[in-house]
Design brief:
Number of domains of chain B: 1
Structural class of chain A: mainly alpha
Distance between the termini of chain A: 40 Å
Strand content of chain B: 25-35%
Number of strands of chain A: 0
Largest interface: A-B, 37 and 36 residues
Strand content of chain A: under 5%
Distance between the termini of chain B: 31 Å
Order of helices and strands of chain A: HHHHHHHHHHHHHHHHHHHH
Number of helices of chain A: 20
Largest sheet of chain B: 5 strands, mixed
Oligomer: heterodimer
Number of domains of chain A: 4
Shape of chain B: globular
Shape of chain A: globular
Order of helices and strands of chain B: EHHHEEEE
Radius of gyration of chain B: 12 Å
Helix content of chain A: 55-70%
């Protein structure tokens, strides 16, 4: 084989490689030129990924582009999805693409499941954001009158005290020191990027919860809980249905957790107690269930997949008796890849490490 | 497919940010493409493509993108990405 090729380390190397690729592009399969072309292309593509990653499109950008390129109309989409209103709502971001819709787009129009499965906002969530901001403004006015303090004081009564929290904070299977740093980083990127900077909750969350309580009593609260709030819910409010009241209790208890335990201890408890789907509670059970491994053996891609799960464990769960389902796998992979991209954006791993991990399949224990 | 020349898309976005969503979506289509031959390319880009010699020019409204493809080896070379003046 005459595939001796220099590594691509600079823009000059890259330009030279592209020139040679252009010269060899018509190479016939099996020829020495084809071997050389393939190696050059892999190296050039890798250099480009390392130098400048193009952000992934959101699913509607991807769908809209594909429709235009294929000459498809909204009526065509309505025919494929079985309803004009469904097509309109999807294109106008008023409803999410479901697994079934993605299946039809993959089978009917040969679109790729991965780009259609990434998380994205719909108009409703934008409206909710506007409502939250409006609510926050109302609460700012309330703050002046001390109403927020009264609200939180009222909800704080009867909840676990700091002494009681210290007694309840047990049950660690895997100490934090035995969890690989890349796994911890994956959870921080996915669930709470400001974990080591906040005091258990974000001020915006307080305003939002108090505003929701005033403006929409009895309504389900918005999500977005910090890791400390999630632990408070799991440890101290298990079994309570979602409500604005529970959200406020979560915030009060999160503050008390932070006053009682160190950040590392809270994170350790969280990782050992969080739900990962099926019978897996805690990261040790999850590592065993999904990969047949002990926690210290988890690699970056596996850690990112586990970090993808707590948001919606049974939506992204693979293997362990679940039927093989290409769309479910694509959705899980999309979420895992989102975690990896977020890690890279936050500077927790390099872009090339994220890209290499994104190329790995999710190989779970069946 | 192995996609080579995506740096041209990134450079085009830097010069002409309104084309970002279109070019990001194009990149995703190329990366996920599994084209066995020209018919598959026509299926995916039929409404916006023109075949000129051995190249394919995509008219994406704000930008023109030129592709060269070796189907047998699964290689897409992005040979040009120019915004309309």
């Amino acid at each position: 084989m005459t595939t001796m090729v220099k590594p691509i380390r600079s823009d000059d190397d890259h330009r030279a490689a592209l020139a040679e690729i252009d010269r060899l592009l018509g190479a016939a399969p099996g020829s020495a030129d084809a071997d050389r072309l393939e190696v050059l292309c892999v190296l050039a593509a890798d250099y480009e990924r390392r130098r400048q990653t193009l952000d992934a499109p959101d699913p509607i950008e991807y769908l809209t582009f594909a429709m235009r390129a294929q000459g498809r109309s909204q009526s065509d989409l309505a025919a494929l999805l079985g309803s004009r209103s469904r097509a309109s709502e999807v294109l106008n971001r008023r409803r999410h693409l479901t697994t079934e819709m993605i299946g039809r787009l993959v089978r009917g129009w040969s679109l790729a499941a991965g780009p259609l499965s990434a998380p994205y906002d719909i108009e409703g969530s934008l409206k909710r954001t506007v409502a939250r901001v409006t609510g926050a403004l109302a609460v700012t006015a309330m703050l002046a009158a001390g109403a927020v303090a009264a609200t939180f004081w009222a909800y704080g009564r009867g909840l676990a005290t700091e002494t009681e929290i210290a007694a309840l904070a047990t049950g660690v299977t895997v100490p934090l020191a035995e969890i690989p740093p890349h796994v911890i980083k994956a959870f921080l990127a996915a669930e709470d990027q400001d974990y080591y900077r906040h005091g258990g909750y974000s001020p915006a969350a307080i305003l939002r919860a108090a505003a929701d309580n005033v403006l929409s009593p009895g309504a389900k609260p918005a999500g977005g809980a910090t890791i400390t709030q999630q632990l408070a819910k799991n440890l101290l409010l298990a079994g309570e249905a979602p409500s604005v009241e529970r959200k406020i209790r979560e915030i009060v208890l999160a503050r008390r957790l932070e006053a009682t335990l160190s950040k590392d201890r809270i994170l350790e408890l969280y990782l050992n107690r969080i739900y990962f789907g099926g019978p897996a509670w805690g990261i040790a059970a999850a590592a065993r269930q999904y990969f047949g491994k002990a926690v210290p053996q988890l690699d970056l891609a596996e850690g990112a997949y586990l970090a993808a799960l707590p948001k919606a464990p049974n939506d992204y769960r693979l293997g362990d008796g679940m039927p093989a389902d290409a769309l479910r796998e694509a959705r899980a992979r999309g979420r895992r890849d989102w975690v990896l991209a977020r890690m890279a954006e936050a500077g927790l791993i390099t872009g090339s490490a994220a890209q290499m991990a994104q190329r790995e399949p999710i190989t779970v224990t069946r | 497919m192995i996609v080579v020349g995506s740096s041209l898309l990134a450079a085009c976005i830097a010069r002409h940010p309104p084309a970002a969503a279109t070019l990001r979506a194009l990149s995703a289509v190329l990366v996920h493409a599994e084209w066995a031959g020209p018919d598959d390319v026509r299926r995916d880009f039929g409404a916006v493509m023109t075949e000129i010699g051995g190249a394919i020019v995509l008219d994406l409204g704000q930008v023109l993108v030129t592709l060269k493809i070796n189907h047998a080896l699964g290689i897409v070379r992005i040979a040009g990405a120019e915004e309309r003046i």
